[in-house]
Write a structure and sequence with these properties.
Length: about 500
């Protein structure tokens, strides 16, 4: 190989080595510059993201409409809760059709879910992740703001009560068809369909508005109505054409008649659909002056006392007998504690609020109508109308049978305020008894069955007889006191006679 060519190759390698060295040197310089720039930038960013102290909220951060910038978690929580308290005074107008009802947000029980977690989120903003991520989050706040949206809720019990009381009163619900017996014929009034509010749906609508559209001011929310069909239609009532059963009792006199009249009014015109159970107690409540009742005579602990709606049991009893003749299904019936005078034993049906009720079921395939009244002859009566599907020639009668009688008792008590020998009765003397009621079925005048449909027990009363022992003669008084302790009526009468004789002898 020529010597000259060899020298050229050696020179070329040297040049290439020098180029590589220069490149390496320059690369090192660049890397060093980059590292220096990175270090400087990191330092700047680190300082930037640590401008906000731990436990302090960055600038331009809101929870709802409450700015919490620069606050500690404690101060932010207090600020948000104070704002929530202010919201309670704001008014929410509920629009139903063309009408409105109002309630404060406080009445609806407004609150925000997990407020403490909202505050934690505000404090943590810009403090998690890499320096670059934190810088990017905080840099966004320079020209804008971060809003952490609370989730508002309502107190379901309180809000339900408000909607039911105020908004639902504005709805125009369906009106059932009705029927009455007038001048020998049945008159039907047509049904009217209506619109009603679904309370659960209304609460969801209000909550959705508060969380999606509310501007933290007084608000108006339109509540959606749903169509409601009448439960009872004209076509349902056209089958009512015949009397199924009836019964009447003497109404008596005094305030008691007012109570009988009021309860009969409440029951009059009632339509009971096939298979439906009817409660006389629920239909005649509440037993109060506001509902038209007055003080009237009633039984209590074996005595006649005055009480609001006294006499209501005569209404249920009279209806019970009409139900028996209509042969409806009796599902609940109780006798009185002591015997009543307006019907035979076992033909009564007592009512005691929350304790005793008279219930029956329409076991016909068509609706029935109850008509209640007090007529010009002072008779409390009930008619039950419907479609009579019983065989022609079918009839029923009811017979009361007394099984045992129990005499009322007497209890003699000393009366130190009345003169010796004076007798004053307290309470009512009523005998007790056990009885049963028979249902007798006739077909074309022939008895075909006889069944017991109830058994009743009536307690005898205890009549208190106060015996006077007031006298200056101690011996005479002791004679009577000793006889009272024996509870022997004959001995008491004899002791009174002896005591009076002693007093006469001493005068």
């Amino acid at each position: 190989m020529p010597k000259q060519n060899k020298k050229k190759r050696i020179g070329s390698r040297r040049v290439q080595r020098r180029k590589r060295q220069r490149i390496a040197f320059l690369s090192g310089l660049c890397l060093a510059a980059v590292l220096i720039i990175f270090a400087i930038s990191y330092g700047i960013l680190y300082k930037y993201v640590h401008k906000v102290k731990d436990g302090t909220i960055a600038s331009h951060i809101f929870i709802g409409e409450t700015e919490v910038s620069g606050m500690t978690s404690k101060k932010a929580l207090s600020a948000v809760e104070a704002k929530l308290s202010e919201y309670e005074a704001l008014t929410l107008t509920m629009k139903v059709g063309d009408e409105t009802a109002e309630a404060t947000l406080g009445e609806l029980g407004i609150s925000a879910k997990d407020v403490d977690k909202l505050v934690e989120e505000a404090v943590a903003y810009g403090k998690k992740g890499s320096v670059w991520k934190r810088y990017h989050a905080l840099r966004q706040l320079k020209d804008g703001k971060k809003v952490i949206k609370p989730v508002f809720t309502l107190d379901q019990e309180a809000a339900t009560a408000i909607v039911d009381e105020r908004a639902k009163s504005l709805e125009k619900g369906a009106v059932n068809a009705s029927v009455s017996y007038q001048n020998g014929s049945f008159v039907i009034t047509d049904e009217e369909n209506g619109r009603t509010i679904d309370t659960e749906a209304a609460l969801k609508t209000i909550a959705k508005y508060l969380n999606e559209k509310w501007d933290y001011k007084n608000a108006v929310v339109t509540l959606k109505e749903v169509e409601e069909e009448a439960a009872i239609k004209r076509t349902d009532l056209e089958s009512i054409q015949e009397e199924l059963g009836s019964y009447s009792t003497e109404a008596g006199s005094g305030n008691r008649v007012t109570n009988l009249q009021r309860a009969a009014e409440l029951l009059n015109g009632t339509v009971i659909m096939p298979g439906e159970e009817f409660s006389v107690e629920q239909a005649t409540l509440p037993y109060s002056e506001e509902n038209g009742y007055v003080d009237g005579g009633a039984y209590e602990n074996g005595e006649v006392v005055q009480s609001i709606a006294g006499g209501i049991c005569q209404v249920s009893t009279t209806l019970y007998n009409a139900v028996l003749y209509a042969e409806l299904e009796v599902t609940e019936r109780s006798p009185h504690s002591i015997i009543v005078t307006y019907v035979d034993p076992s033909r009564d049906a007592a009512i005691a609020e929350g304790i005793k009720d008279f219930k029956f079921k329409n076991n016909y395939d068509t609706p029935i109508l109850i008509e209640g009244y007090i007529d010009s002859n002072n008779q409390l009566g009930f008619y039950i109308y419907g479609k009579d599907t019983r065989p022609e020639g079918h009839s029923v009668e009811y017979e009361s049978e007394t099984l045992e009688k129990m005499e009322y008792t007497k209890k003699f008590v000393e009366d130190t305020e009345s003169s010796l020998g004076t007798l004053n009765n307290e309470g009512t003397a009523i005998n007790g008894r056990t009885a049963r009621l028979w249902k007798i079925v006739y077909e074309n005048g022939e008895e075909v069955s006889r069944d017991v449909i109830n058994n009743s027990t009536y307690k005898p009363t205890e009549m208190r007889i106060k015996v006077g022992t007031a006298t200056d003669n101690a011996e005479a008084a002791n004679l009577v006191k000793t006889a009272i302790a024996s509870q022997d009526e004959a001995a008491i009468n004899e002791a009174i006679a002896q005591a009076k004789a002693l007093i006469n002898e001493s005068q």
